[in-house]
Amino acid sequence: INEIRFQRQGYAEALVHPDVLNAVAGGIHARIAVTYVEWAGPDAQDVVVPWTIIAGKADAEAFGVSLLAAPKRAFGRNAIGSALDAAEKLITGNAHEGIRKVIDFSGDSANSWDPIPTETARQSAIGKGITINGLAIRCRDCSGRPVDYDLESAFRDTIIGGPGSFVVTAEDRSPFKTAVRRKLILEIANRG
């Protein structure tokens, strides 16, 4: 639970950071649609905060409050294919038509125990014009199980994809917040 709370706090703080809000304001529509989903096993993708329009600080603050208040409801071993499949469905099946469609995939492992192969879900999302970016969490005290292989390369090889896709790595607690903020700015400004 501490790991989840720490990650949620990082996203809540990043969304209200002036640099992120400036990136939103500088966009063509000066707003973004965001949802927050936690994932685990094949049937465990939880929409923690539903699609929300963020057009300024008040919207971002309200999103953060909702994010931090929700209980953890996603449990099980990594099912990356199912997580990507669920994210694709959320993007293609919502009421918002964005200029860019991005899955912001965060995790501490590229291992998957899933009936949906990661590559199948990855290619399906990319085929629908969705970019998948990654936040590789290598921070030992931010994550319960940091891996001993090159997580950034594994994300690059097996998870991310689409035009301008990229991976940002968080190595420590303080850089985690910075990595989340940097990743959001790159995604919003489309400068991956």
Description:
With about 190 residues, the protein is an alpha/beta fold. Helix content is about 45%, strand content about 20%. α6 (about 150-160) links the parallel β4 and β5. α1 (about 1-15) runs antiparallel to α3, α2 (about 20-25) runs parallel beside α7 (about 175-190) and α4 packs parallel to α5 (about 120-125). The mean pLDDT is about 90.
Give a brief outline of the structure.
The chain has 192 residues and is α/β, with parallel strands linked by helices. It contains seven helices and five strands; from the N terminus they run ααββααβαβαβα.
End-to-end separation:
31 Å
Number of strands: 5
Quick one: overall form?
globular
Helix content: 40-55%
Largest sheet strand order: 3-4-5
Q: State the order of secondary-structure elements, H for helix, E for strand.
A: HHEEHHEHEHEH
Mean pLDDT, to the nearest integer, reads 92
Structural class: alpha/beta
* Amount of beta strand: 15-25%
Number of helices: 7
- Sheet with most strands: 3 strands, parallel
The poorly predicted ranges are none
Query: Gyration radius, to the nearest Å?
Result: 15 Å
